[in-house]
From TrEMBL:
Protein name: M67 family metallopeptidase
Family matches, as CDD domains: MPN_like
Superkingdom as given in the UniProt entry: Archaea
Short name of any one Pfam family annotated for the protein: Prok-JAB
Ranges for domain MPN: 7-137
InterPro entries registered for this protein in UniProt: JAB_dom_prok, JAMM/MPN+_dom, MPN, VirAsm_ModProt
Organism: Pyrococcus kukulkanii
Amino acid sequence: MSDFRFSLVLPKPIIEEILKRASSSPIEICGFLLGRENKVSEVVFVKNGLDSPVEFEMEPEEMLKALEYAEGKGLEVVGIFHSHISCPPTPSGKDLRGMNLWPVVWLIVNSSGEYGAWKLENGKVVGVEVRIVNRGS
Ligand SMILES: [Zn+2]
């Protein structure tokens, strides 16, 4: 029994790709998890416009392109992901402000291969269960 109230269904190749890029990037990486409801079917990487190892902001033009791509394919933004370098995959103060602006699931990974997912519920951060599935299941 888990006490998670929310879950994120994430295909294995997608989390592997995100972790691989996070582990080899000197700056935080970020992007969108696209799909329907809580099921991710595609990942779109967006350039970190801050080019920073301690914070991120999606580069506006690439972000817009990613959102247009999602709309064109009839996909929703299920989640936002970004990486932390050598820090736990938990939301920072700045992440919390971002979570207020983008009230979807936030997947945070780190350069050591750890990950966690979070969302705001009534202004409080709650953990989201990450269910890794094989593609198509
Ligand atoms: Zn962060």
